[in-house]
Structure formats: C-alpha cells, structure tokens
Amino acid sequence: MFELKPLPYAYDALEPVISAATMRVHHDKHHAKYVETLNELLAGSDSAPDSLEAVVRGAAGKADARKLFDNAAQAWNHAFFWDCMAPGAAAPDGALADAIARDFGGLDKLKAAFVEEGAGRFASGWVWLASDGQALQVLSTHDAEDLLTRRELTPLITCDLWEHAYYLDHKQDRQGFLEAWFDALPNWALAGRQFAAAGGQGAAWKHPEPKVKALGTAAVH
Ligand SMILES: [Fe+2]
Q1: 21, 51, 177, 200: which could form a disulfide with 166 (CB 3.0–4.6 Å)?
Q2: Contact 75, 51 (CB under 8 A)
Q3: Cis geometry, peptide bond prior to residue 16 (ω within 30 degrees of 0)
Q4: Cβ proximity of 110 and 102 under 8 Å
Q5: Cβ-based neighbours of 36, under 8 Å, separated by 6 or more
C-alpha cells in the first residue's frame, strides 16, 4: 500500500502564491483521494508492486487500466510536485544554470516559455521542465499524464495546471499563478539534482516505496 507523502513544509509555507487553504484541500483531499483510490485498485490485483513508477508504467496505454493509470500517475505527480517547491529557494546555479542559459537564453526566457506552455495547455494537466540528457525542454501533459513513460526525459520541475491548484487563490488567472509560482517557488536544488541524474550522475527522484511489498506479508511498522 502506498502512503500519502507528507508535505515537506508547513501548509502556509508557500503563501502568498499558494494559500494554506489551497494546500489543505490539494494535499489532504485531492492527493489523498488519488492515493486512496490507487490502493483500492491495487488491493484487487494479483501481485503487489515494488514501486509506484512500475505501476504507472505498467498501466500506461492499457484501455482496461485507465483508472489505475490516472490515480497512480496523479499520486506520483503530486508527491513530486510538493518536492518541486521550496519557499525562499535560491536561483539555479552550476551546470543547470549553464544549461538554462544555453538552451533558453536565461532564466527569464525559461520563465516565459514555462508560463506560455502552462497557460496554453487546454483544460487540466501539468507543465514540465525536463532534460533528455542533452538539452532542456519545456512541455506539458494532459490530465494525469506524466513523463514516466517517456524514459528519454527526466523531469526537473513541474507545476500543477488543474484548477484545484490555483483557483482559490488566483481564480481563472492561470497565467498569473504560473508567473508568481515561477518567481517564488521552484526548488532549484531538486532541479539541479534531477539535471545531474539525467546526465548519468546520481539517481533521479523516486516516490517512496509501498509499505508492504508482497501480498500475505504482515505489515511491519
Ligand atoms: Fe493537483
């Protein structure tokens, strides 16, 4: 069974861009529901998964596993998203800063591309900064889709484009939310580690493993 990953900061740590009220609903209700549904679906399967990454990749593209994919991917996306934010974080540095300058012409132009991509994504989804090991790119995905099924891409940071992520604080102004988010909240330290992992140095971010790996095994706490 997968557990709801706790927030790595206080509910109000991301204010004023994201209010404590939004975080309580987003983490404690939306993210929790994805994890709850994921576990209900897995409880009816024959084998227990080793990782959430394996669940997402195993269900991707299978018409009879759409609900499992949606909930597993959303559980993964949200856990990663919480870690993609760090209030008061410093700007990108080192190799990542060099790559941003090389591939976008600087952080301001990366911001413009990120905001344009996220604001332009119709309906719900996620906007990503990713690396293919050679170059950085900005892209967006629809609904629950993420980059786990695109093994050539390592996500560096992501931002949630679903209305539940910003509507309480920014109403319909997704572009305004993204601009404020990019200025204040990206965890560039995590992005730097992800960038290094894309280049073969270190391991990329992984979701915490499930508590019980094998069916029939008593839970140990
Ligand atoms: Fe969300």
Answers
A1: 177
A2: no
A3: yes
A4: no
A5: none
Ligand 1: centre distance to CA 155 (Å): 17
Q: How far is the CA of 105 from the centre of ligand 1 (A)?
A: 30
Q: What is the pTM of this model?
A: 0.94
The torsion of the CA quartet 157, 163, 164, 166, rounded to 10 degrees, works out to 70
CA-based end-to-end distance of the chain: 13
Q: What is the mean pLDDT of each run of 10 residues along the chain (221 residues)?
A: 96 98 98 97 87 96 95 98 92 97 98 98 96 96 95 96 96 98 97 97 96 55 44
Q: 154 CA to middle of ligand 1, Å?
A: 20
Six-digit token string for 73: 């991917």
pLDDT value at position 213? 53
- In terms of Cβ atoms closer than 10 Å to its own Cβ (0-12, 13-18, 19+), residue 68 is buried
Nearest residue to 14 (alpha-carbon basis) of 5, 6, 23: 23
Residue with tokens 């987003």: 26
| Residues measured by CB to lie within 5 Å of ligand 1, the ion | 160, 162
Tell me which DSSP letter residue 115 carries.
H
